[in-house]
Each structure stands twice: as structure tokens, then as C-alpha cells.
Amino acid sequence: MNNLPPNSGHSRGRGRGTKRNDDANRGLGLQLGQTSKETCPDKPGPSTEAEKLKNIPRSTDTEAQSSEGDQRGSVRGRRLITEVVHSRPQGLITKSGTTGTKISVQTNYFKLLKRPCWTIFQYRVDFEPDIDNTRYRRGYLYEHRNSLGGYIFDGTVLFCTVQFKAKELVTKNHAGEDITIKIKHVGSVEAADNQQFQVLNLILRRAMEGLKLQLVSRNYFDPMAKIKLDNYRIELWPGYLTSIRQHESDILLCAEIAHKVMRTDTLYNILSEAIRDNDDYQDAFKRQVIGMICLTDYNNKTYRIDDVDFGTTPLSKFNTREGDISYVEYYKKRYNITIRDHKQPLVVSRPTEKNIRGGTDQLIMLVPELSRATGMTDAMRANFQLMKAMSEYTRLTPDRRIERLRVLNQRLLSSKESMDVLKSWNIQLDTALVEIPARVLPPEKIVFGNQKRFLCDTRADWTAEFRQNSMYSHVDIKRWYVITPQRNLRETEEFVKLCIRVASGMKMLISEPRYDTIPDDRNGTYSQSIDNAVAKDPQIIMLVLKAPNEEKYSCIKKRTCVDRPIPSQVVTLKTIAPRKEKSSGLMSIATKVVIQMNAKLMGAPWMIELPVRGLMTVGFDVCHSSKNKNKSYGALVATMDMKSSTRYYSSVTEHMKGQELSDQMSMNMTCALKAYREHHGTLPERILFFRDGVGDGQLHQVVNTEVKFLKSQLDKIYKSAGKADGCRMAFIVVAKRINTRYFANKRNPVPGTVVDDVITLPERYDFFLVSQAVRQGTVSPTNYNVIHDNMGLSADKLQILAYKMTHMYYNFSGTCRVPAVCQYAHKLAFLVAESINRSPSSGLENQLYFL
């Protein structure tokens, strides 16, 4: 593995710095606040690469985020949109429902009124010697623009209106050396081809450049409109996420408002603080930056930090075709940047699998001084004041969001540079947001004890109803333990008394617990106390922590989920004994804790009215391990026919990166069916399977591998049980991370608002559903993509069932954004991936112990 600075353009190179004493970096503390400086030439002319490209439009690197959320910098030539996957089941007559009140909603889409009717010729462009920086590649090609006609170039692929044979062009770099540009015809794009949308998105990006926006990663942001939060050393850059694709009848542009968190910290600042505040500054610096995404302004790329090399500095050398060169010399020669501190260590970004397949196998070495930290740390997210300050700008109400979208449209249509681009390609954008039909599904009835019902209102919250209603079914808690630090016994006892009183109001009996007061809060002390409690055979254990602590929480959950399987309820002192000014909400907290404990013991706090008997609903989600980035955990949670049973089944299996999920998924489903048959004496009549955690890039595999394998395995089970028709199942991919928004009279749509036309996709059986209410900002719909269905239910019934299932998440007495089984699966997968890192005991598989 060879070590190179980013964009060196060399195929080989190796860091050659000598190891230094660990304390050599102590001098960095004296240089706090120093920054690198980029100098400009004293006189005009193409004296540097940057000056030569002064008038060239900025790079349009097409960076796409992987399905795992890993952003490692731009990759030339990557498509802006993923390949279209035709997942619409054959024989589907209609995907539109009819139930509900019809309304009209505005969306965050603009219609393309005119589009090119052309044939575009596609060429591959190579440079000798290779040039890695996309902006430089574009600049060299730009010098020959008169011979190319109208064109779009993304760094590797050239789309051009002129057809010509393979050609070689020659230009010179700033050193006067020849650069050969080889252009080879590889195909053409017709107006009817799906690849036209790649071209249309490239044209849109070129038009966006006319707004003087800056490309950061794969989206455009406006640094001129940045919002400074100086107290927190961050900036918010407003920007836009855009995408053009074919929808039901029209080509539409989806535009969403985004904000990029740009920290004013460089990695050098973080290093300096680590040196100032820690004896073992190397370990402290590594803990802070490994896994972080950083931005290098000189090439506008992002990199994931994988390591820190304290043995390599900017004075270390790597070899090139021209001989050895230090990082200091390289950055001065290549970017005209002066590195100030020559003693700082370099950070390491490893090549991704895609980089390696593309021929780049070297470690990328980054200079902390030149690398800006991006994103937010856990400490930032836990800072209530910071999050509140950010939300004032990022949580846009629907009317403000609509106004910002209109401003984007006006800017595109009033900028001469942008309009010239659109007109040259015969593209016309509508000025109005697309308005579409929608329906509001009937409100659901929540069933409490004694069959009392509550009709949900637009708040989709029934917490207050527990004041006068008992739970649908409950399990009396007669044997339970409370483990608490000795010094917090009084506060714990007060909270337990409140829980007992709250439960009594809901007709549930909770007896006085046995207390185990521990002298300290070390992990081993908690583990020993759990062992002692389990020996007394309690129904559930409550554990009190002084403060949120990942390590302690992980220790407790490993003990209670694996070693000594028993339902457990972890609470923090801050939650059960808040400051006096916040104590008014303590009754509500006690109510939620009682509801959770009841659910963990197989009670049902509430129920919904289900029109279908013999239905198993299943949720499946995947979370990546916090300990091993190559390991993930897939969790499955299934109901046992909620019309006649309140029981659940759950299981978790681990799999390695790149491993097919089909085997584990079908194995878990087989176990779920076994549990159902043991409980009911028969197999479920229908299975409604909700699959979460699928990126667009994974949809092809889910459609063509997962579903087919799962269906074939389930059919075998059903046919062996005498059901000749096999398994009747609907398999639905649930997507939350989408950019679609819709608005009702410039307000948020009410829960139950469904859209199944116009902005849906013709190759899918899909619909959008808003199931939750939000108090701030704009509500986000959830997309449901039905990729297999032989249940025999109409689109109308599937939409209603999906909405009903969002009412059954027992961690919150209100609706959630996805069906409850999906949220349960996520909760379970996250618990295992973050805290347990192994499969839980099978003794807990029939309980919602992971709530």
C-alpha cells in the first residue's frame, strides 16, 4: 500500500518520513490559531494551474453517497442517479387507493415544460499523464471548446451534440509540459433513454453554477449566505438537493432545502486542543478524528479519516515520476499553498473498495492544517443549546420552505448564465410548484382496556387518554428488583412510588420492589448485583444510572440480554429526579416507564382495530456494528396476529460486509412462522413484510435476490403444511431518507395524508404516507415501495394497513414515521450493534425486551 497526498495523479508513491520522538508534537501547542495561507500570483497570466483555470466553471464532481452512508470523496464519472429498478409486480391493475378525504397538496417539485429532443453522443476522455483533479481535467478540455460544440463533461464522460471519430488533443500544463487528451466514442444517448436523466442532471448542475453556489461533496451550497454560529465554531451553509427523473407522467425536478454544517475547526485545531488538554494527546486526537469526514478546500473533496500517522510529517517525502518530493513542496508546487507547521502528523484515509477497483490502492495522506472538520460530534448533538440555535435556521416551516423553493426557481430563471445553459439545451422549467391530488385516510381508533376506544385527532397522540383508561392488557408486576447507587436511594424510592401510583390508575398492580443499593457505580458492581437479583427469579429489573453512560449501559444490556436473560428497565437520575423547575413532567415520565415495563412483559398498552384475520406483520432492519465496521446485524420482529394475540417474536443475526442477507432473513422468518404455528396451531394466512434499511443502490439485489429466495423458502413451508397455493405475502421496502415533501395550504399535511400518483414512479408500485405529526419544521413523508404482492388485497387496503401499523409503537403513545414492526426491528438491531455486539438469548425472543 503506497502513501500519497490526494490528487497527486501518480500511480505509485511512498511516505518516507523518519520516526520522531512522541513529544515532538508538543510544539504545536504554541502555534494555536496559525493557519495555512494560499497566495496569489503577483501578475496576471497562467502562472499557476489555479490562475489558468480562473474562468472555468467549478467542478461538477458527481459524488454519490453509498448505501451505508460512507462519504469518502468524489469519484469521477459516477452516475448522479442509480439505475432504474423495475420493481412493480406484474399484473398490477392500479396502485391508487380511493379511501379517505380528497385534498390537493403542493410538492417540492417543478415540472420540465420543455426538454431536449436530441441525440447526445457519449465519449470517454483520458489524460496522459493522468490528471486526478476533475477541475483541471475540465480546464484542459475547455481550451478546445470551439472544436467540441455544446458539451457536458463530468471528468471522465463527455456528452456532446457533435459526432466525431476518436481524436487526440494536446495542451500544456503550467510547466510547459504536453498533456494529451484522448477522446473515444463509446455510445449515444437518445431522448427516450433512461441515461438522458444523467445528462439532464449534469445540465442542471451546470445551470446551478450560474448561481455562484459551491459544490461540497455532491450538492450545491451558498457560502455567501452562510450563517455563523461563532459561539459553537460552526457555520451553516444553506443549499439545495436536486434531482431530475421520470415520474408517472412528467419529468420532474425535485428540489429540497438543505444545510451543510461547516466547522471552522481544522484538524490542526483539534490536534492543538488535544495536546493542550491531554497527557496522551495522540490517543485523544485519534479518538476524536478517526471516522470523521473532513473537507479539503483546495480540491473541494471529502475524505473519511481512518488513522493518524505520527511518524509522518509534511517534511516526509514520497516518490513521483520526477523524483522524491516532500508534502510541503508538493502543496506549494501543485496548489501554491504554504504549510506553516512542518511538525504536524499526517492523517490517513484508506482507499475504498471502489477506489481499489478503479485502480487507486494507495493510502491518502492529509495535512491537518489543510483539512477542515465537517459534520457534528456526539458532544455537539448532545448540546441542547447548540441544537436549538441550529434548529432556528434548519427547521423550516412549510411556508418558509415553499418561499425558499420559489426563490431558487426565480434565481435559476433570472441568472443570465443559468438561463443560457438551459436555453442552449432547450430546457424550460415551470415557475410553479407541482400541485397533486392526495387523500387523508380516516382517523384510527385506539382500543384501551374494557374495549374503550379513542378516535385519534390530528395530533396523533393519545398520552392523555391513560388518565381515564386502563391498558388493553397488562401483566401485574409482583416480583421485581430495583438496583440503585446507595446515595440515590431516596430519589429512586420516590420515583418507584410514583410508578406504582400511576399503574394503579391504569388498573395495573405493581408491588413494592426489593432494592439492592450498590456502593459504587462500577460496571462490575452492576453485573454482580444483576446476578444476585436474577437468582431470586424476578419478572423485571430496574437499574438506575447517575448519568447517561454508553459503557455502563452496554455492560448492563450484555448482562441482561445475553448472560442472565431478563427484561430490564434502565433509567437515569436526571430522568427520574429532575430539577424542581422541570418536575411537572415527572408524572408523564412515570406513565411512559410503566407502559414500557408492561410491554416488555408481554402486556399490550393499547390496540388498533384490524380488518384482517390471520395476519403476520414483519419488520426487518440492519444496523452496522460500532465495534467492527465490516460486521452488521439484521433484526426481524414479527407479530403473532394482532387480532387475537398481543405476542411478538424477534431474532437477530450478524453478517459480514458484502454477505447476502437472504439466508439469515429466511432462517429468521422460518423461526417466526414456527413460533406462530406453536401459538395458533396453524400458519398465518397472510404475511405483510416491511423491509427497512435499503438504499436505492441495493434495491436491485433486494428485488432479484432477497424476495425471490424468501418467497421460495416460505412456499416450501406452506406447501409442506398442505397449502397448495403457497405463501400469500406482500413485501414492502420502507424508505425514510427521501427528499420528497408535500404541503397542505402552506401547512404540514395531517397524519394519514397519502399520495399515490404524479410524483410516484412508473416502474414502482409505491406511495407516500405522512403518519406522524411534528411540532417544528416540515413533516417528512415515508415512501412505501411494494416489490412483491400476492396477498390479494387492493392498494387501498395496503395503504390503510401501513397507516394502522404506525400506531403500534409502544415507546411512544402516538404514531411513528414507519410501521411499528420496522421501528422495533431498528431498535433491536441498534441495541445489538451498539451495545451488545452478539446475538441476545433466545429466551427473550417472545418479549419486547429491547424497548
From TrEMBL:
UniProt KW keywords: Cytoplasm, Developmental protein, Differentiation, Hydrolase, Methylation, Oogenesis, RNA-binding, RNA-mediated gene silencing
PAZ domain segment(s): 266-375
Entry's Gene Ontology molecular function annotations: piRNA binding; RNA endonuclease activity producing 5'-phosphomonoesters, hydrolytic mechanism
Major location (coarse): cytoplasm
Domain of life: Eukaryota
Gene Ontology cellular component terms for the protein in this record: P granule; perinuclear region of cytoplasm
Biased composition annotated in UniProt, kind: Polar residues: 1-10, 57-68
This protein's name: Protein aubergine
Organism: Drosophila madeirensis (Fruit fly)
Lineage: Eukaryota, Metazoa, Ecdysozoa, Arthropoda, Hexapoda
